[in-house]
C-alpha cells in the first residue's frame, strides 16, 4: 500500500526540535520567582515565551497590538518561517500598507504556552529530568495562554494594549483577554471564533488526538526518547482537521472530481483524485513543522474553553462593564465556528452595553477565510482599527 | 420652525451639512451631545456617522449584511440584527436615545418594537413615512392603485414596508401605550419641517413624514 504521507527529512525534523528550546525569535525567560499559575493547579516554572515584534513602541506606549495565533500557527506572523522557509502566516493582514502596518503599530505575537516554536511546551526540555517534557507537561488552557501573554506584556513594559487580534483559537484568546484583563485591552478584533468549543469541535479534536495516539511511533508520548516522531498519525489528524477548515463549495471549486496527473482511475488506493493529493500534501508539510504532543495539548486547551462556564453560565457576566471596543467577524461558509456562535457573543456583548461591531462576510472559503485574501475582511479590520486608533489618540500616520 | 432655525448644528462644519439628509439633521438636533444612542435599522450608517461627528456614542443594528459591512467599514459600531427579534437582547436603560429612522413600517410588530425602544432607551426618536400624505391619498383615490412616491418607490409586491401608518395613527398608538410625545415634527417631501402650530390634520395631509421625540409615560 502506498504511504499516506512522505517522511519529513531528518534535517527538518532536527530543525523543528531545535526550535522548541532555542527559537529563532526573541525569548522572555521567567524564573522560579515568576511561575505561571495554571488552571490545572500546577505552577509552571521556569518557563519561556518566544515572540516576534514588528514596528516600534511609541513614546506613550499606546500603539501595541498583540496578535494571538491559531491552533497550528506560531509567532512568525510576518517573517519567513525558520523551519519551512515560507512567508509569515498572516502577511495578508500584517505588513506595510496592510491593516496592521508596523509603521503605525508595535505588533507582538508570541508562541502560546504549550506550543512547539520556542515557548515552553511538551516538546521543550524539562529541566527537572533533562529530557523532553512529553506527557509530563501539565495540561494547559486558553486562560493559561493569556496569563502567560500578560506576563510577557508586563515584561515589555506595556500597560494597555491598543488591540488584541486573532482568529479561531487566536480569537478565543482575544475574548479571554477581554474577560480577564478588560482594562488592558482598548480594542479587540475577534475573528471566526467562539466563546466555547462546541461538541462537534471537541469531537473532531478527539479524532485528531486518537489518530496521533494510534501511531505506534507515538510511544505514549515518549517518541523523543526513541528519536522518532509519529508523523503518520499527526498527518492524518491534520488531514481530518484541514477538511473542517474548508467548505464543500471551496473543495468543489478547487478540485471537483478532477484526477491527479492521470486521465483514468488506477483502481488502487493511490491518490487518484486531486483532493486526495492535496490533503496528503497538507498532512506531510504540517508534520515537518509541528510537534505531535503539542498538537494534543493545544487541541485540549480549545476543548476546555468556555467563557460562560467560568461565569455561572451567563456569558454577559464575563463582559459586564467592559470598556473595550469589539469587532466580531464571521464567515458565511465557516461551519467550524459558524456565524451563530459569533451572534451569541454579540448578543452577550450588547447585553453588557459593550461597543461592538459585527460583520458576517460572505465567502465560500470556510473557516480558513480569515487567513486568505478576502478584501471585505481587510476593509472592515482596517476601518475598525482606524476608528479605534482615533479614539485612542494615535496619530494619523499611515492611515 | 424653518430649516434655518434647525441648522446649523453645533459641532458640524457648515460644508458638511450638505452631505446629510435634512431629516437626519433634524434627528441629530434632537439628540443631546455626549449621549449614548442606538440607531435601529441604521442602513449605510449616514445618521450614525453624523451623530459620531457630533461626539455622540452611537451604535447601530441593521438587517442587511451589505449595510452592516458598509457601516463597519466606516468604523461604526454596528451589528447585524433584526428590530423585531433582537431588541429583546438589550438591557433596560442601556441608551439615552434609541432611534428608529424610516424603519417602523418595515417591522412585523411595530407596537412591540416601540415598547422595546422605550425600555432600552430613556427616549426614542421615531420617523416614518406618513401614509396620510395628500399624494398618497390622491393616488389611491384617483389612481386606484397602491401609492408610490419618490421616497417609497417600491411596488406593493416587493416592498419591505408591511405596516404603513399615518401621523394620526401613530399619535393614537402613542396614546394607547402611554408614550409621551416630547416633540413632533412633520417634514415635507424634501425633509424640511412644516411650520409649527398647524392642526394635526394639516400635518397628516401635508407631512410627507413624521418625526417624533418620545419618552416614557404621560399618555392618556
Describe what you observe in this structure.
The complex is a heterodimer of chains A (399) and B (220). Chain A is built from eleven helices and twelve strands. In chain A, strands 1-4-6-5-9-10-11-12 form an eight-stranded mixed β-sheet, with helices on both faces. Chain A has a two-stranded antiparallel sheet with strand order 2-3. In chain A, strands 7-8 form a two-stranded antiparallel ribbon. In chain A, helix 5 crosses helix 7. With 220 residues, chain B is α/β, with parallel strands linked by helices. The relative contact order of chain B is 0.15. Chains A and B meet through strand 11, helix 10, strand 12 and helix 11 of A and helix 5 and strand 3 of B.
Question: Helix and strand layout, with pairings?
Answer:
The complex is a heterodimer of chains A (399) and B (220).
Chain A: H1 10-21, E1 26-30, E2 36-37, E3 43-44, E4 47-54, E5 64-68, E6 106-110, E7 125-126, E8 131-132, H2 142-155, E9 161-167, H3 169-180, E10 185-191, H4 199-214, H5 231-245, H6 248-254, H7 274-289, H8 292-304, H9 315-318, E11 325-331, H10 339-351, E12 355-361, H11 375-392
Parallel strand pairs in A: 5-6, 5-9, 9-10, 10-11, 11-12
Antiparallel strand pairs in A: 1-4, 2-3, 4-6, 7-8
Chain B: H1 3-6, H2 14-17, H3 22-30, E1 36-40, H4 46-53, E2 57-62, H5 65-73, E3 77-80, H6 83-86, E4 95-101, H7 110-120, E5 121-129, H8 134-143, H9 167-176, E6 179-187, H10 200-206, E7 209-216
Parallel strand pairs in B: 1-2, 1-4, 2-3, 4-5
Antiparallel strand pairs in B: 5-7, 6-7
Helix pairs in contact in B: 3-4
| Structural class assignment of chain B | alpha/beta
What is the tally of beta strands of chain A?
12
> Helix count of chain A, per DSSP?
11
Percent helix of chain B, as a range, is: 25-40%
Shape of chain B: globular
- Give the CA-CA distance, first to last residue of chain A: 56 Å
Number of strands of chain B: 7
Strand content of chain A: 5-15%
- In terms of quaternary structure, the protein is heterodimer
Major β-sheet profile of chain B: 7 strands, mixed
Strand order of the largest sheet of chain A: 1-4-6-5-9-10-11-12
Mean pLDDT of chain B: 87
Number of helices of chain B: 10
Uncertain segments of chain B of ≥5 residues (pLDDT<50)? 1-7
Q: How would the global form of chain A be characterised?
A: globular
Placed side by side, the strands forming the largest sheet of chain B appear as 3-2-1-4-5-7-6
Helical amount of chain A = 25-40%
Low-confidence stretches of chain A: none
Helices and strands of chain B, in order, run as HHHEHEHEHEHEHHEHE
H/E order of the elements of chain A? HEEEEEEEEHEHEHHHHHHEHEH
Protein chains sharing the most extensive interface:
A-B, 26 and 21 residues
